[in-house]
Amino acid sequence: xxxxxxxxxxxxxxxxxxxxxxxxxxxxxxxxxxxxxxxxxxxxxxxxxxxxxxxxxxxxxxxxxxxxxxxxxxxxxxxxxxxxxxxxxxxxxxxxxxxxxxxxxxxxxxxxxxxxxxxxxxxxxxxxxxxxxxxxxxxxxxxxxxxxxxxxxxxxxxxxxxxxxxxxxxxxxxxxxxxxxxxxxxxxxxxxxxxxxxxxxxxxxxxxxxxxxxxxxxxxxxxxxxxxxxxxxxxxxxxxxxxxxxxxxxxxxxxxxxxxxxxxxxxxxxxxxxxxxxxxxxxxxxxxxxxxxxxxxxxxxxxxxxxxxxxxxxxxxxxxxxxxxxxxxxxxxxxxxxxxxxxxxxxxxxxxxxxxxxxxxxxxxxxxxxxxxx
Length: 374
Prior knowledge:
- Keywords: Lectin, Secreted, Signal.
- The protein is about 25% helix and about 30% strand.
- By secondary structure, it is an alpha+beta fold.
- The chain has 3 domains: about 1-160, Immunoglobulins (Immunoglobulin-like, Sandwich), CATH 2.60.40; about 165-240; about 245-374, Mannose-Binding Protein A, subunit A (Mannose-Binding Protein A, Chain A).
- The strands form 3 sheets. Strands 12, 13, 14, 15, 16, 17, 18, 19 and 20 form a 9-stranded mixed beta sheet that branches. A 7-stranded antiparallel beta sheet has the order 2-1-11-10-5-6-7, with no helix packed on it.
């Protein structure tokens, strides 16, 4: 009958560099379960990790990974063996392990309150040398805080038989046993020496696996970077569609109009534009003005649309906020403009009623326009 030692840990990692993350025990909530049981073959083990996200604060599970302390691991260090995540959806083998070593299955539940699972079984006894296994689940809360849930289990349930000797210390003990048995039987000594040779070969395989693991980790880092880039593009697209109306392409550029009418802050607006790989619009010709004017008129929702033009630093010297270049195109359609009414009108807006530029108080309620290269 198998023996399982299981611990449940619930960790909420606050994304705040000024505070350490906290790990809190989860009483009576078996959110994550790790089973280590004997397989059907001699010395084989089956390792299975299950997560019930409904017992955690996770809105979405992002990954499930099984680790192990192996003969070639640093003392007490868990090395990753297999993982499955939200982006790849299929399990990935790590640390030099291949499908010739294990059978593997895994899936990530989509959405909150769902279940995820990751399991594998060693195909040969020589691979059952890990002393402990650990399963770690990562996810996101509704407020986008990162949540980590983990469980650790003993790797050798009763009834399972270890395969080969796994450490250099044990190898030395076998060698001593061989020397002690010389007096009994020369034939027995020869047999045991052959066993030692086999163990040495197994250890060499582990050393080789370390090199393969390093290569695999480099590949995993590159893969994570690629996925991060994809996630960043997805985030930008989501942010874009939620907060801006988007124009067609005009001479290699697109224009973005904020959807909300709000008090204008030229520095904050330019920062928001930068999230789109853009900046507050810098209109340099009548053709460009006509395109932007037609676009903002079509979008509507306000009669005022701020640009990047301003004379905040020096009255009457108009510069673009982002590039700091002098404004070289003006379209003041009303003869009295710019009038700097009250001595506080320092920002250039497109005013639909003027069909041209107007200087206006910089913190007035309006929309603003960004531009970016395609």
